[in-house]
Amino acid sequence: MEERLERATKRLETARDEHLARVDAEMEKIDSEEKRLKNRLQNLYEKKTECVAANSDAAASDDDRVEINAGGKIIAARRGVLCQLKGTRFEALFSGRWEKKLQRDDSGRIFLDVNPKAFRAIVDWLNVLAISTEDDCPESPTADEENDDILRHYMRLFFTNCTGTRTNNIDSEIIKSKNYAKTIHNWLSEDGSEGVLSLVHRSSRDGSAIDIDRLESNEDGSNGRALVIIETTEGHILGGYTNAYHLSSAYHLGHDSAKPCASKSFLFTLCGFDLTSPCKMKVKNGANDVTVEFTRDVECGVAFYSSKNVYLYTNKRVNLSIGHGNYSYECGPSEQLRSIIKEMEIFQVSDYGDPQKSNEWCHSSNDIASNRVEDDIFPAGLSDAIKEKWRALEEIETEILSLEDSFTDEERFVETFASGSTSDIVMLNVSGTMMATKRATLLVVEESMLAQQFDDSKWTEQGSSKSQVKQWTSEEVVEWISNIEGIQDDVSNLFMENKINGSELLALDKDGLQMIGVKRVGTLCLLFDEIKSLKETVGQDVATLIEHSPYCFGKILDYLRLKHLNALDLTGQPPLPTVCDRRKETFDKVVKYYFPGDSSKLILG
């Protein structure tokens, strides 16, 4: 009897020890993972702190007036207005965190190589946003038809969530429920197709005919990924996603080997049609004949089809056919769904950024996910607690990676888009209209005459008169002061006594003038205005003369700006310039002058 009791006791003790050992091992793994994440977060914090210390303006505040040289036009706004959309590249640009890295013109203003009208539209929109309530937010900024494509590129550049900032929000007039937005993102994520959703067509805004030129292509010339969302007059919501599509001027439904195959595609219904829950219908494994087509000359022209059937088809009405026969898509909630289209939106789907980053994100999440405990290892209560801890760690790692990716993207964006020396800014006098751009923008098309005119072998830094002013001796400064009407000789003597040279003259503000001994308020204000006027006027007389229409050359310059952004991997392929009919002939001539031979096709198509 005692022997049997001793065996049972030993077995119990052994089981207890094994159980405690498993608990200790699990706790050790959890503690190790938690420590790793805390160290990772601390490293990111230290990196940010170091970067801010090196590049920021510690005195920056929301009330600062920020002056921006936007492609040659001066735009001013409060820092708080420019930075109200936190987490965006636009906010990062003007936050003060990168103040010492930003490229500046001769007058010390932040220089951005952008279309002034499109940039002005963004600032105007932010001004209205700053005085709006959450229930009365303004619509997205708009520009005239000729600048609309440029504005859309800038909105993606500045406000599309950056690398690693994975969000469930969708810029949609149809998807207003966060749950529906999350469902769509989850569906995309399941197929490894998650990314940034950029609106390229909204029927209520752009008309029912699709402008297929707005749908961008991949670098290899193939068409990219797109998401279609449709709302019917009854309030039903449905649509589809494709990782490849065909663009056409008219429907040509039917299998064609020349058309790209949508290997990762799905159709969906979110609500309506007597559904109890959203339904996703994926392309079946092995199906290799699914084609998605966007058509220009048909109202709401979208078609998802295969060699055997048409599954989603729009032409004022929407037809969704997902039955139980020999179809390339999984079965849907009904054989046939038909309704009248109220609104249709098409989104370009693009990667968050560096594919390696995306892989790292997936890999890291999977590492933690692989540590999830099996149901039968621990008692139910303990098992649930351990699972909850692992889920929390997984969510925290995703958040940390998002912060890391966001900071990396912010740093790269400022470095590639907004940094540079003052000498790299090229002032252009286009038949009397002043424009400004980066020299790299003019060099982006190597075959062009502009690239030849401004390349290293022929380009010499524009002999800015401001550069000449900076070289003034103290005697030349005194001579300039003496020629200002209303300035007494004793004031000129103050500049001589303090040996103020040209560079110091341009740096003087009212406090500086007082420090050298200027005391009379009238004289102080007069000198400050004259110095400010000197800063604003120098440089204009040394701009490179362009003897062509400002309208036509401006169109070329806007295209080159977008082309340069694309070369920096900051935006997609630029659209062809939109030119009014009465100027088309002149525009073609100017383009062919600057882009001889086949290079003109780049802009003229």
Itemize the secondary structure elements and their pairings.
Elements (H helix, E strand, L loop, with lengths): L1 H54 L9 E6 L2 E6 H4 L6 H6 L15 E3 L3 H15 L17 H12 L18 H13 L5 E7 H4 L18 E8 L4 E6 L3 E3 L16 E7 L7 E4 L8 E5 L6 E4 L4 E6 L1 E4 L16 E14 L4 H15 L10 H39 L6 E6 L2 E6 H4 L6 H5 L11 H6 L3 H9 L6 H9 L4 H6 L2 H6 L5 H17 L6 E3 L3 H18 L16 H11 L6 H4 L1
Parallel strand pairs: 1-3, 7-10, 15-17
Antiparallel strand pairs: 1-2, 4-14, 5-6, 5-14, 6-8, 8-9, 10-11, 11-12, 12-13, 13-14, 15-16
Describe the structure.
- The chain has 605 residues and is α+β, with helices and mostly antiparallel strands.
- Helices cover 42% and strands 16% of the residues.
- It is built from 20 helices and 17 strands.
- The strands form three sheets. Strands 4, 5, 6, 7, 8, 9, 10, 11, 12, 13 and 14 form an eleven-stranded mixed β-sheet that branches. It has a three-stranded mixed β-sheet with strand order 2-1-3.
- Helix 13 runs antiparallel to helix 14 and helix 18 packs across helix 19.
- The radius of gyration is 31 Å and the shape is flat.
- The termini are far apart.
Task: Describe the main β-sheet briefly.
Answer: 11 strands, mixed
**Mean of all residue-level pLDDT scores:** 82
Q: Radius of gyration in whole Å, from Cα?
A: 31 Å
Low-confidence stretches: 162-168, 353-366
Q: Determine the number of helices (DSSP H or I, runs of at least 4 residues).
A: 20
Beta-strand share of residues? 15-25%
DSSP helix fraction:
40-55%
Overall strand count = 17
In whole angstroms, the N-to-C terminal distance is 97 Å
Task: Name the shape in a single word.
Answer: flat
Structural class: alpha+beta
